[in-house]
Design goal:
2 copies of one chain form a homodimer.
Chain A (H helix, E strand, L loop, with lengths): L5 E3 L1 E2 L2 E2 L5 E2 L8 E9 L8 E13 L9 E14 L2 E6 L3 E4 L5 E5 L5 E8 L10 H7 L3 H6 L3
Antiparallel strand pairs in A: 2-3, 4-5, 5-6, 6-11, 7-8, 7-9, 7-10, 7-11
Chain lengths: 150, 150
């Protein structure tokens, strides 16, 4: 527990005193990704959590959806994000809003890592890995279907 | 109102379709600062608001305190932040947690702008400009007192 104001210094996309962690999800549909939980429950006044996710070139996050929204700020590299039926190119310092129930997945480009800040509510539902039937119901773009990693 | 997922593209620390606004506070104790409200009330699912603040070289934000906390990620330049009795050097991509009631002020360095993302609760109290008596009660560092702009 720490309720005092503080500065967390960054060097090469690592933060002093913050543990680099493996990305963990219920599914196994992710590759070459790690995370830093920068500001979260150790500060009881915070209703939001601030995390940093980074995927190495060619890496990707889980394909998932959930009721809680994401506020994302890219701070490193390039890649794209699948948002239901859309593919969006992203690079530093683009902002992404992921609305409730949107099926989404982040991909780093082949040549560059992709790093972003992701803000979520402290109290939130667990992500769901969509079934093939759910994917088919929401997504009819062949281009998106070909991009999905699962 | 917009409840759809979206990407907001950035170019030179400006965001497509987002208005650059003047910084506004109850006091007049700020200089050379502007803001972009990136993600806020137009997305009803969001409990947090994501804003970008930038101060030009030598600029500074209001000296203030309030009950709600701030989660801050510096994304441009260099400067320092006053946190009660402490002066902290900051640069991209340092993270700052500002706890409730902390008297704080951001300053850009003379040679560089300072730009940061600041996350706040959607529903929050108004900032208070501390009186001289309040400043004296909290801050006894001569170094900090000399840095305060008001």
């Amino acid at each position: 527990m720490n309720s005092k104001s503080l500065v967390i210094k960054e060097t090469d996309y690592a933060w002093s005193g913050v543990e680099r962690k493996d990305y963990k999800t219920d599914g196994q549909n992710f590759k070459d990704i790690h995370r830093y939980t920068l500001l979260a429950d150790e500060h009881p006044a915070l209703n939001a959590q601030t995390r940093y996710f980074e995927m190495q070139p060619g890496g990707y996050s889980s394909l998932e959806y959930h009721r809680h929204p994401h506020s994302v700020i890219v701070i490193r590299g390039r890649g794209h994000v699948l948002l239901n039926n859309e593919i969006n190119e992203i690079s530093a310092f683009d902002v992404v809003y992921i609305s409730p129930e949107t099926i989404h997945q982040f991909h780093a480009d082949e040549g560059e890592p992709l790093g972003f800040i992701c803000i979520v509510d402290r109290y939130r539902d667990r992500p769901v890995v969509p079934s093939d039937a759910e994917i088919k119901r929401v997504i009819d773009s062949e281009e998106v279907l070909n991009k999905i990693k699962k």
